[in-house]
Amino acid sequence: xxxxVALHLEFGGGxxxxxxxxxxxxxxxxSQSEPWDMKQLLVWIRxxxxxxxxxxxxxxxxxxPGILVLINDADWELMGELEYQLQDQDNIVFISTLHGG
Length: 101
Description:
The protein has helices at 38-48, 76-79, and strands at residues 5-12, 24-29, 58-59, 62-63, 67-71, 74-75, 90-96. By secondary structure, the protein is α+β, with helices and mostly antiparallel strands.
């Protein structure tokens, strides 16, 4: 069984507005039989943190186009995107690049 995973989540570029304006979240994902991955994290975020307009954050089972995702300061595309297996103390950043104006 995979141990609980503690993560530091950050939301910026306007994405924090979907989370009651809170930019930083320290979360602990519960133990489960399989290791946590980014796909499961997005489901957990939607169920537990996202406060409004899920269509502005997720699209299908991934993040909406226009949201940059960094895993420990590296582009998640280099880390395996949805398949990346989360490690204890990972820092995951979601930055919206979509701005009005």
